[in-house]
């Protein structure tokens, strides 16, 4: 599966309706973004069970502002509708694979339960 263009109209629904969604915030003029694009595309082909979205920060300035994007490219990962990873910078293929593996292996329900329990103790 190739990447999917996400917009302000499709972003929330995509994150909510899919188990794992990776999002690349990028811009056409950004050299590191162009360098990261083929790495991201290859990962999308390798992992068809994951949604690989792309947000053009120039076309979707409101969405980029909402996501507090201050540097591009920025990669975000969502699992079961929850943001579980966010990092600026172009990742090499091996590092992107590590992120994917970590997100796949993450028990987000247990993490949320642990965070809730810690919050109640305070």
From TrEMBL:
Disulfide bonds join 30-33. Gene3D superfamilies: Glutaredoxin. Signal peptide: none annotated. The keyword Cytoplasm does not apply. Residues 1-105 form the Thioredoxin domain. The active site is at 30 (nucleophile), 33 (nucleophile). Pfam families: Thioredoxin (PF00085). Keywords: Disulfide bond, Electron transport, Oxidoreductase, Redox-active center, Transport. One of its GO terms (cellular component) is cytosol. The record marks 31-32 as: Contributes to redox potential value. It comes from the Bacteria. The record marks 24 as: Deprotonates C-terminal active site Cys. PROSITE patterns: THIOREDOXIN_1, THIOREDOXIN_2. One of its GO terms (molecular function) is protein-disulfide reductase activity. NCBIfam families: thioredoxin. PANTHER family: GEO12009P1, THIOREDOXIN 2. Belongs to the thioredoxin family. This is Thioredoxin. It comes from Jiangella mangrovi. The lineage of its organism: Bacteria, Bacillati, Actinomycetota, Actinomycetes, Jiangellales.
């Amino acid at each position: 599966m190739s990447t999917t263009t996400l917009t302000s109209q499709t972003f929330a629904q995509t994150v909510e309706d899919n188990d794992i969604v990776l999002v690349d915030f990028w811009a056409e003029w950004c050299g590191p973004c162009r360098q990261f694009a083929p790495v991201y595309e290859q990962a999308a082909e390798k992992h068809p069970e994951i949604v690989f979205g792309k947000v053009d920060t120039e076309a979707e300035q409101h969405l980029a502002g909402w996501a507090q994007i201050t540097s591009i490219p920025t990669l975000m990962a969502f699992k079961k509708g929850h943001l579980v990873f966010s990092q600026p910078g172009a990742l090499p293929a091996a590092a992107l694979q590590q992120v994917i593996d970590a997100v796949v292996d993450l028990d987000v329900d247990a993490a949320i339960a642990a965070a809730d329990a810690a919050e109640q103790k305070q």
